[in-house]
Amino acid sequence: MTHASLTIILHEHRALSAMLRSILLLLGQHRRRGTLPDFGALRAMLFYVDEFPEKLHHPKESRLLFPKLRGHGAHSDAVLDRLDRDHARGEHAIRGLEHALLGFEMMGETDQGEPRRATFETAMHLYVRFYIEHMHIEETEVLPLAEAVLGAGDWTALDQAFLTNCDPLAGHDAVAAYQPLFKKILSALPASSGVGSVLEALAGAGAPKYAWPPLG
């Protein structure tokens, strides 16, 4: 049986993975050209990560899903503890990324520009690797455990909670207020980013196609 909450978690993982990889593609493109990136687009992309995955997706996993899975073995409890720590770490890390990006933007055309660029790029690469691994653990250990141990009542509660997330990149209609955000991101993305087709749909240019990059 397919549960709505599992489908939403997987779609949201693909959305976050695609957005994070797109940031790296954008940074790599500008480094190769020796140009400064579109800082407005980068701020918009980090805002998306903070607004949807950090504030909607991860808290529901920690508050609603993980507690239902505890008590099924020392190993699984240790994994859940680690993932909870990851969620707390991610919320702190996004603040650090936003500060590092601001430093790069403010100092990018001075003699501090290169070290500030390197600081942000390094932090961004570490963040992406951290969350790709985090999502992989959830998909290979936590979600199979949930399918094995949760009952119908658990799934009903989880499905109702996750259906309210409404992340546009995970297949939901974009709230009108967010459409300028996605247009800004789309304008700066390389065509091969993996999120372009979804963002084009939000901008009114086509239908979404969910072909997310692999998480590995």
Note down, in words, how this protein is organized.
This protein has helices at residues 4-33, 39-69, 74-107, 113-149, 152-162, 179-188, 196-202. With 216 residues, it is mainly α. α2 (39-69) packs parallel to α4, α3 packs antiparallel against α4 (113-149) and α6 (179-188) packs across α7.
User: Structural class of the secondary structure composition?
Assistant: mainly alpha
Helix-strand topology string: HHHHHHH
Give the overall pLDDT as a whole number. Answer: 81
CATH architecture: Up-down Bundle
> If you consult CATH, what is the topology?
Four Helix Bundle (Hemerythrin (Met), subunit A)
Q: Which geometry do the CA atoms define? A: elongated
Residue fraction in strands: under 5%
Over all CA atoms, what is the radius of gyration? 18 Å
In whole angstroms, how far apart are the ends? 25 Å
Give the helix proportion (percent range): over 70%
Number of domains: 1
Number of strands: 0
Instruction: Count up the helices.
Output: 7
For this structure, what is the CATH class? Mainly Alpha
Give the low-pLDDT segments: 201-216
> By CATH's scheme, which homologous superfamily applies?
nmb1532 protein domain like
Query: Can you summarize the main beta sheet?
Result: none
Blueprint (SSEs and pairs):
Elements: H1 4-33, H2 39-69, H3 74-107, H4 113-149, H5 152-162, H6 179-188, H7 196-202
Helix pairs in contact: 1-2, 1-4, 1-5, 2-3, 2-4, 2-5, 2-6, 3-4, 6-7
Features:
single chain; mainly alpha; 7 helices; 74% helix; disordered C terminus
